[in-house]
Amino acid sequence: MLYVSIIFIFQFSIFDSATAQNSRFTIKGDVAVNAMVERHVEFNNRVKTIPGFRVQIASFSGANSKNSAFGLRDRFVLDYPATQAYIVFDEPNFKVKVGDFRTRLEAYAFLQQIKDVYKGYIIKDNINPEPPVVDDYAPDDLENEME
């Protein structure tokens, strides 16, 4: 986030000229800075994960490890349908990871819920954030509540 802020400050501090005609501004800046910002925006649109935490509940290797990992994942999903479960192949292991937690504290609270059935530990991982909540709010709603 700091990197993006620095780019914007840098971009707007190195402009050649700014002209005002009919309340319209034209800012001419360095082409390389504009290209760098466009690449950054394009990258952010492609990457859909953010840094966070998961709980790894198992790691299987050897014969039948793939079937064991999928079986455990399926059992976990039946027990906790609201929590996502993932299988990652990290040669030679099949790892079963669960949850998409933004903070270590959230992951720890979930680990405490499942620790009697699933032994696991918290790991740093890239997570799939939940989509933002969109409220159907209109400015008139506040005015109507005040009356």
In CATH, the architecture of the largest domain is 2-Layer Sandwich
**Can you tell me the CATH superfamily of the largest domain?**
Sporulation related repeat
Shape: elongated
What proportion strand? Answer: 25-35%
Q: Uncertain segments of ≥5 residues (pLDDT<50)?
A: 14-21
CATH topology of the largest domain: Alpha-Beta Plaits
Summarize the structure in words.
There is one protein chain. The model is unreliable at 14-21 (pLDDT under 50). The protein has two domains: 2-46, no CATH class; 50-127, Alpha-Beta Plaits. With 147 residues, the protein is of the alpha+beta class. 42% of the residues lie in helices and 32% in strands. The longest helix is centred in the first third of the chain and has 16 residues, at 31-46. The protein is built from five helices and six strands. Strands 4-5-3-6 form a four-stranded antiparallel sheet. A two-stranded antiparallel ribbon has the order 1-2.
Describe this structure in a few short sentences.
The chain has 147 residues and is α+β, with helices and mostly antiparallel strands. The chain is 42% helix and 32% strand.
Summarize the helices and strands and which ones pair or pack.
Layout: H1 2-13, E1 15-21, E2 24-29, H2 31-46, E3 50-61, H3 65-79, E4 85-90, E5 93-101, H4 104-114, E6 121-127, H5 139-146
Antiparallel strand pairs: 1-2, 3-5, 3-6, 4-5
Helix pairs in contact: 1-2
Identify the notable features of this structure and list them briefly.
Alpha-Beta Plaits, 147 residues, alpha+beta, four-stranded antiparallel β-sheet, elongated, 42% helix, two-stranded antiparallel ribbon
